[in-house]
């Protein structure tokens, strides 16, 4: 079976994979989820967070050759990590995630979409260095089909998100281009519009889909685990 590393998106932490990890472990996989710098239990101050530090955290977490799954924002750091050193990355899996376009930051990629549904749920800090999720809009944008318990669980754990990693332009090289990759679309995503997901995944050789929201790890963990398992088997 496979080594699998799960990487969360903006404002989240390793905690968001709580329902997926045991399902993958039951299939025999060795599974880890990490907190990126300043997320979850990681004590890094927001002002010290960079896109490179995210990528370095991912590379540090890799013990053996692994399938690396990145959700949403994590599409950028998993890509940068692979471009820095792909020796322990068997495949990249983008879960409704941003895929870097040459010379574009994540913020610039988001603006390529014809609509911006995520903005209603985000509040920028006064100093402009971070943003947070507005609780009253969280369900609509991120968790519309998730169980009430899971939404409450998430709202208790969401953290501020540093802006710097998302404002950093990226141009990837041949190392990243040589890594096999898959994309998992979320068809009713109210955070990253599905039409933008399709465009970002247009040249991917392997594109799969799930019904529902931006948070399939809560809404349909079994279906998500099944997809990751199938992808890992092929890897």
From TrEMBL:
Pfam families reported in the protein's UniProt record: Abhydrolase_6
InterPro entries: AB_hydrolase_1, AB_hydrolase_fold, Sec-Metab_Biosynth_Hydrolase
UniProt superkingdom: Bacteria
Domain AB hydrolase-1: residue ranges: 4-226
Matches recorded under PANTHER family: AB HYDROLASE-1 DOMAIN-CONTAINING PROTEIN-RELATED, ESTERASE_LIPASE_THIOESTERASE DOMAIN-CONTAINING PROTEIN
Protein name, UniProt field: Esterase
Organism of derivation: Roseivivax halodurans JCM 10272
């Amino acid at each position: 079976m496979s080594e699998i590393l799960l990487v969360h998106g903006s404002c989240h932490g390793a905690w968001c994979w709580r329902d997926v990890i045991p399902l993958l472990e039951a299939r025999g996989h060795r599974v880890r989820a990490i907190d990126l710098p300043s997320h979850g239990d990681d004590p890094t101050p927001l002002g010290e967070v960079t896109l490179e530090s995210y990528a370095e955290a991912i590379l540090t977490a890799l013990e053996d050759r692994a399938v690396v799954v990145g959700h949403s924002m994590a599409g950028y750091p998993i890509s940068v990590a692979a471009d820095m050193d792909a020796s322990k990355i068997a495949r990249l899996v983008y879960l409704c995630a941003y895929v870097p376009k040459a010379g574009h930051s994540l913020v610039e990629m988001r603006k390529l979409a014809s609509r911006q549904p995520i903005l209603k749920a985000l509040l920028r800090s006064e100093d402009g260095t971070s943003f947070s999720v507005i609780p009253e809009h969280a369900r609509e944008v991120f968790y519309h089909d998730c169980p009430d318990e899971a939404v409450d669980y998430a709202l208790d754990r969401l953290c501020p998100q540093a802006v710097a990693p998302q404002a950093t332009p990226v141009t990837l090289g041949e190392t990243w281009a040589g890594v096999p990759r898959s994309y998992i679309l979320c068809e009713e995503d109210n955070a990253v519009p599905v039409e933008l997901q399709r465009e970002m995944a247009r040249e991917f050789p392997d594109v799969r889909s799930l019904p529902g929201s931006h948070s399939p790890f809560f809404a349909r963990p079994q279906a998500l685990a099944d997809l990751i398992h199938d992808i890992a088997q092929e890897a």
